Amino acid sequence: MYRLIAAGFAAAATLAAGTTTTLMAQEAGAVRGTVTLEENGGPVHGAVILVVGSGAFALTDEQGMFEIDNIPAGSYEVLAQREHLTAGRQTVTVEPGGAATVDFVLGLSPVHEDVTVTASVGGTETTFEAFNAVTTLDSFDITRESAGSLGDALRNEPGIASRSFGPGSSRPIIRGFDGDRVLILEDGLRTGDLSSQSGDHGVTIDPNGAERIEIVRGPATLLYGSNAVGGLVNVITPHESYRESLFDGARAQFGTNVGSANAEAGTTASLQYSQNNVLVWGGGSMRRTDDWEPSRTPPPS
What we know:
Elements: H1 2-27, E1 28-37, E2 48-52, E3 56-59, E4 65-72, E5 74-81, E6 88-94, E7 99-101, E8 104-106, E9 115-116, E10 125-126, E11 133-138, H2 139-145, H3 150-154, E12 160-163, E13 171-174, E14 182-186, E15 189-190, E16 212-217, H4 221-224, E17 231-236, H5 239-244, E18 249-259, E19 264-275, E20 278-288
Parallel strand pairs: 1-7, 1-8, 14-17
Antiparallel strand pairs: 1-4, 2-3, 2-5, 5-6, 9-10, 11-16, 12-13, 14-15, 16-17, 18-19, 19-20
């Protein structure tokens, strides 16, 4: 008798769970569309499409197309952003089981709305909507700095200074916090170096191989622990964009920089090869620096 009752309750619970899952799947919809360039109408590859408020995002493919699934029914703002292009915003309504279509046309502009993946909510949102003060450096900004270490690459940003015991060993200081009070991440994961414990150790991440660098100024301990009292720096590598935009063939990236004042020389390289939805990606960097040498040219009198 008791076994039959227990079996009946188990069957009812299983049926209820299956019904709930089916209803949730039916209530979810999708957002799809295209992103094109205003100047010539060509597709924009690698643009970030963010459904604001849901945390869902995607990258456009080689044809400038995108599709984001499993979006709960409702009204959302959709943001399209690409480096040094104008950011587009549109409001869409997602119907249960349907797909909302939205198309963006972006123009060239030096000012844009950045997207960060490590802001104050631990998800994907725009820098203007983040709770903490957030600064994002894209690949153009990183190339312009052409710094040999992470601290040197960020020292000109608001609220950021650099601690250095010599060339190649600098580390960012955020609002006066240094050492283990500033967390360094790579693609959202902690890095395991000694730069937070000793000033003569540099950060092992080479900024010249990054696609984007995100800086969160202010405490983020609830999300990242006590090491983020002063803030955090997240270095985004090209791996995520490579994975989201597969194509058949190979693609390589190479960069180098030299310095005369400290006999600095460094190089960064990465290689991607994909075929039939299989991706192989690798990268590395090497850097050498010497002591700073004063100028041998006498100052003008």
